[in-house]
């Protein structure tokens, strides 16, 4: 009798690979990479450890068939975890070699451990990309909101906002002008609302809203697009224009401007999907 479990095993093996790769990445880094403590070292270790713990939880729950006992939407939780883990491991795969391999005078086992951590971080990122591609909703398929394109974009929006928070806080670069404070308010408000959508979907609480969820998404999406449009314009003007007394040559400031524009495009695409959802429902 032929085995019939192969289609689902692709997702299983992707999760197993992600667990092994993330475990190896942070274990090697913690054991012999001589990273010290604080700063980007802690961030990279957190990315790998958090991804490992969440992926192991998903793997154990599914293999033990414990989904009914978990107080979350299982159609939304695994793909949300995979998408966040993918972005975390991607950030670690970029940050770790930049800070701990480039222009470093370490040789021998220490450098070998750092190279190994970087390689396994990249492999973990690929494994999570495969998992997300296998878990996302197909056209015509009934799936949780977080498995759809708008749901995955919510994860990207919050992740980009977190990177922006790190860049504008070290050093603080938004307190010299009211327009820059407005940009910071945009980042915070949109992050909170996007994260609230993620929590509502994972916790199956969308019915608690006083208006239909699809209309809420459209209204919030329009608000976020308008707010991010203003931030996309104001941030570079008040950071790079010499008449406002800004230097305009800080790499962090340029990165924030690029990420602001990226999030604006994500919210614009999200709005297009949400508006389409409302029209189809109507």
TrEMBL record:
It holds the Pfam family MARVEL. Residues 6-140, 145-279 form the MARVEL domain. One of its GO terms (cellular component) is membrane. It is a multi-pass membrane protein. It comes from Fundulus heteroclitus. Keywords: Membrane, Repeat, Transmembrane, Transmembrane helix. This is Myeloid associated differentiation marker. The chain crosses the membrane at residues 12-34, 40-61, 81-101, 113-130, 151-172, 184-205, 217-238, 253-273. Belongs to the MAL family. Its main location: membrane. It is found in: Membrane.
């Amino acid at each position: 009798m032929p085995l019939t479990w192969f289609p689902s095993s692709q997702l299983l093996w992707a999760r197993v690979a992600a667990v092994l790769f993330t475990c190896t990445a942070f274990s090697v880094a913690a054991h012999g990479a001589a990273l010290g403590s604080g700063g980007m070292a802690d961030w990279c270790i957190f990315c790998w450890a958090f991804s490992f713990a969440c992926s192991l939880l998903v793997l154990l729950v599914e293999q033990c068939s414990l989904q009914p006992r978990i107080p979350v939407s299982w159609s939304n939780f695994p793909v949300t975890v995979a998408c966040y883990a993918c972005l975390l491991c991607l950030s670690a795969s970029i940050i770790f070699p930049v800070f701990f391999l480039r222009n470093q005078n370490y040789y021998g086992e220490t450098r070998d451990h750092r190279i190994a951590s970087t390689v396994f971080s990249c492999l973990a990122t690929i494994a999570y990309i495969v998992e997300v591609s296998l878990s996302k909703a197909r056209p015509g398929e009934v799936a949780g909101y977080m498995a759809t394109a708008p749901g995955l974009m919510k994860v990207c929006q919050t992740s980009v906002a977190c990177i922006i928070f790190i860049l504008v806080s070290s050093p603080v670069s938004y307190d010299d002008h009211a327009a820059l404070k407005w940009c910071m308010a945009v980042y915070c408000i949109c992050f909170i609302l996007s994260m609230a959508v993620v929590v509502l979907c994972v916790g199956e609480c969308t019915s608690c809203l006083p208006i239909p969820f699809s209309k809420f998404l459209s209204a919030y999406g329009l608000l976020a697009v308008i707010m991010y449009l203003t931030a996309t314009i104001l941030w570079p003007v008040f950071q790079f224009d010499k008449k406002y007394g800004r230097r305009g040559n800080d790499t962090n400031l340029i990165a924030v401007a690029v990420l602001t524009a990226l999030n604006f495009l994500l919210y614009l695409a999200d709005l297009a999907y949400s508006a389409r959802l409302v029209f189809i429902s109507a």
